[in-house]
Design goal:
This protein has about 300 residues and is of the alpha/beta class. The protein has a domain of about 180 residues: 3-Layer(aba) Sandwich (Rossmann fold). Helices cover about 40% and strands about 15% of the residues. It is built from 11 helices and 11 strands. The chain has a 7-stranded parallel β-sheet with strand order 3-2-1-4-5-6-10, sandwiched between helices. Helix 1 links the parallel strand 1 and strand 2. Helix 1 packs across helix 6, helix 7 crosses helix 11 and helix 8 packs antiparallel against helix 9. The longest helix has 21 residues.
């Protein structure tokens, strides 16, 4: 079992789940906080302020064996300046890594993103052997943070999760849940592109796998459940969890695309119709096994 783990982003969508999971698995967790907040029982806390201008970092990382860095500026469709992504995702990660190196931390696990490697969709299978080609400010900021880690002497690992689903999900997953819960048939049955997802539980299992790996890592790791689904299959799984029939109409994809563009939803259609299938070769080699299939996870998500 690893020693003391310092966790950032513990109040966020992923960080909250990591805190609960790591604590439940017997890890001693020290939460690095921007300001004093209530911390769940079983975890210690240290106030470090803004990670772009940290305070008290030496004390916060004292006796820490590993850092799990999940804090950062989440992806948004538009409206966020590139400089903000660079400041909060790249520069803050670099400063934390430098402090961790000074504190002789054994391992640094960074929550990066599949967008550090590819765009919102990809024509073929995405693997860790592919050359990273981020296409937006968010993806570039995550990739630059990975490069900053590689420039240190730390033993680091960058997790590149695909779209993460779980309780409290926002953005595309929140929109998908609204569609599945609607009482109406949906004209989405003709969409055939597959997309990889990963559950919060599978992602926590991946973090645990990286923390426990005995050998040096210093590499990025794609995190994706092994069973990519089409959008109709996702909705069918969600509605199965609600004890409902799929309710999907097979409208041809070109016709659906035209309808979306005419109604001003062309961008939404491009996101929905595009596929992104990724494979987690590195994690699998380390023994990672997702605790459930994507269909099972989506069904459970709407059951409570």
């Amino acid at each position: 079992m690893t020693g003391l783990v310092a966790l950032t982003g513990a109040t966020g969508f992923i960080g909250r789940h990591l805190l609960a999971t790591l604590t439940a698995r017997g890890y001693r967790v020290r939460v690095l906080l921007r300001r004093p907040v209530e911390v769940p029982p079983g975890a210690a806390s240290a106030v470090v302020g803004d990670l772009t201008r940290p305070i008290n970092m030496a004390a916060a990382l004292s006796d820490v064996d590993a850092v799990v860095h999940s804090a950062g500026l989440a992806h948004a469709m538009s409206g966020t300046p590139e400089d903000d992504y660079r400041t909060l995702n790249t520069e803050a990660t670099a400063r934390l890594a430098q402090a961790a190196e000074r504190a002789k931390v054994r391992r640094f696990v960074f929550l990066s993103s599949i967008r550090a490697q590819t765009g919102a969709s990809a024509p073929g299978l995405v693997t860790e052997a592919d050359e990273p080609r981020p296409t937006d400010p968010y993806g570039r900021s995550k990739r630059e943070a990975e490069l900053a880690l590689a420039a240190t002497g730390l033993d680091w690992a960058a997790l590149r999760p695909v779209l993460v689903y779980g309780a409290g999900a926002k953005g595309n997953l929140e929109a998908l849940l609204r569609l599945a819960r609607s009482p109406y048939p949906l004209p989405l049955g003709g969409l055939r592109a597959r997309r990889s997802l990963i559950s919060l539980d599978s992602l926590a299992e991946a973090v645990d796998t990286l923390l426990k790996a005995p050998e040096p890592l210093r590499a990025p790791f794609i995190a994706a459940d092994p069973d990519p689904l089409t959008l109709p299959e996702m909705i069918a799984a969600l509605r199965q969890g609600l004890s409902r029939r799929p309710g999907l109409l097979p409208m041809p994809e070109p016709l659906l695309g035209l309808a979306c563009r005419v109604t001003g939803r062309g961008e939404v259609f491009e996101r929905v119709a595009g596929g992104l299938v990724a494979r987690s070769d590195g994690l699998v080699r380390l023994g990672w096994q997702p605790p459930m299939t994507t269909r099972e996870g989506l069904a459970r998500l709407v059951q409570g």
